[in-house]
Amino acid sequence: MQIIGQKKRAMIETGKKIDTDFELDVVKNGEEKTVNFSELLDRPTIVSVYKRNNTSGCDKQNKSLSEHADWFDKKGYNLVAVSKDTCGSHKNYAEKLDINYVLASDRDYKFAKATDSIVEKKMYGNTYEAPSRSAYVIDTDGTVLGIIEKVNTKDHAHELKELIENL
User: Fold this and answer.
1) Nearest-5° Cα angle at 15, 140 to 27
2) What digits encode the pLDDT tens for the residues 114-136?
3) What does the angle CA 153 – CA 108 – CA 98 come to, to the nearest 5 degrees?
4) In degrees rounded to 5, what are phi and psi of residue 83?
5) Which parts of the chain are beta strand (E)?
6) CA 116, CA 120: separation in Å to the nearest integer?
7) 43: Cβ–Cβ under 8 A, 6 or more apart, which residues?
8) Which residues pair with 118 in a beta bridge?
9) What pLDDT, on a 0 to 100 scale, did the predictor assign at position 123?
10) Which residues contact 76 (CB under 8 A, 6 or more apart)?
11) CA distance linking residue 1 with residue 31, whole number of Å
């Protein structure tokens, strides 16, 4: 029997700062570009992490955000959804779901590493590591204001609204 002795790190906590000095490829308003994550923090920002475009749970998660994107904007928050999909996939996905917020491609899990949110997952008998389906409210200086550790895909916007109203 093989024992793997790697200790799990806890997810970043509210009140802590994340390292914002890493690049992501993003799609914003139909345009692809590479940005430093800190550039996305020109006002408080909600970062919603999902696994993959065009999957049932992820579609529900993003539809919920898309339907309420104006509310978050009026409250003064940016919306960023992060997955490992390519920007090409993100462009099609944004069109399909009428997404008007930033979709970020994070193939190397840079955001997940910054938030210590890489978890062990199992699928079809295989074990692997990937980012948790979570959401973060991050201030302009990188301070984590709030966290949803396990996203409710069907009611994601409502749970984020509740979190923001209680900040």
Assistant:
1) 40
2) 999 988 888 788 887 889 999 99
3) 40
4) -145, 180
5) 23-28, 31-36, 45-49, 78-83, 102-105, 118-123, 126-131, 135-138, 144-148
6) 12
7) 76, 77, 78, 140
8) 131
9) 78
10) 43, 44
11) 50
